[in-house]
Amino acid sequence: MLVVDCDPQANATAGLGINPESVQKNMYDVFMSRVDGFPQVTMTGIIRQTASGVDCAPSNLDLVGAEPYLYGIASRAEVLRDALLPVKDKYDLILIDTPPSMGQFVINGLYAADRIIVTLDSGSFALNGIGPLFTIFSDMKQDLGKDVKADMAILSRWGEADDKTGPLPAAGSQEKGDFISRLLAVFSPRPAPTGEEIAKEKEHEQERERLAEMLGATEKKFPLVFTVPYSPEIYEAQQKGMPISHVSPDCTAGKEYKKIADEVMKWTA
């Protein structure tokens, strides 16, 4: 498998254990190879092996400087597709990571891809980006003849607010083994909730309603939707520079990503 990092933030690069500042040649050089006067750097020349077994075409912040040059290239949408041709048959799967903001790197990724996965977080404004994205799909079909459609949406950090604040504590919950306390909890009347507890429960209910509405709206636009719960193990994996499958595959997020991976592998069959 090859991960192609087309995001100047280089999170995919760092997430695979590569320091973005340590790479001398990266996706900036590949894109700039199509610009007159710049050295020719191929995809093969920048790919690096990682400890996870996943190869990476790394990025770093320099990539920001390539985008203005792309506007001066007539076939600017095809740069990434053409760059991948020499390595396309060497991998069962090539994952292209693009920035969250619209621009030439997103268009290049869409043009090069056979399948498209849209990632959204569970924040209140996440759905606002879907409209412009589908507009780009329409424009690419009209201007470039590329029929683009999204195959899957992933809603990440799902239920993070509830996980952080937690549900209201069960009435009469006591230390394990404290028989008298547990017995009293069974027969004693439940104390009336405090104003703070009532307010917190109301916030939880509003958040659950918002997430339900978000999920419903997403399912109307995408044929497949997965929700990945908030999990601190994700950050642990990022710090170690390894995929979650290598660090904590049995955590809640790891299990959901396994389902996603199984679905994606069906596309390669």
Can you give a write-up of this model?
The chain has helices at 11-15, 27-32, 67-70, 79-84, 104-112, 130-144, 160-165, 179-187, 195-221, 232-240, 244-247, 252-267, and strands at 2-5, 55-57, 94-97, 117-121, 152-158, 225-229. The protein has one domain (2-167, 223-267): Rossmann fold (3-Layer(aba) Sandwich). The longest helix has 27 residues, at 195-221. It has 269 residues and is mainly α. Residues 161-177 have low confidence and may be disordered. It contains 12 helices and 6 strands. The strands form 2 sheets. The protein has a 3-stranded parallel beta sheet.
Sheet with most strands: strand arrangement: 2-1-3
CATH class: Alpha Beta
| Radius of gyration from the alpha-carbon trace, in angstroms | 23 Å
Q: Tell me the CATH topology.
A: Rossmann fold
Number of domains: 1
Q: How far apart, in Å, are the first and last alpha carbons? A: 14 Å
Percent helix, as a range, is 40-55%
Overall body shape: globular
- Give me the strand/helix succession: EHHEHHEHEHEHHHEHHH
Number of helices: 12
Percentage of residues in DSSP E strands: 5-15%
Major sheet summary line: 3 strands, parallel
The CATH architecture is 3-Layer(aba) Sandwich
**Mean pLDDT across all residues, rounded?**
86
Structural class, from secondary structure content? mainly alpha
How many individual β-strands? Answer: 6
Question: In terms of per-residue confidence, which ranges show pLDDT below 50 for 5 or more consecutive residues?
Answer: 161-177
CATH superfamily: P-loop containing nucleotide triphosphate hydrolases
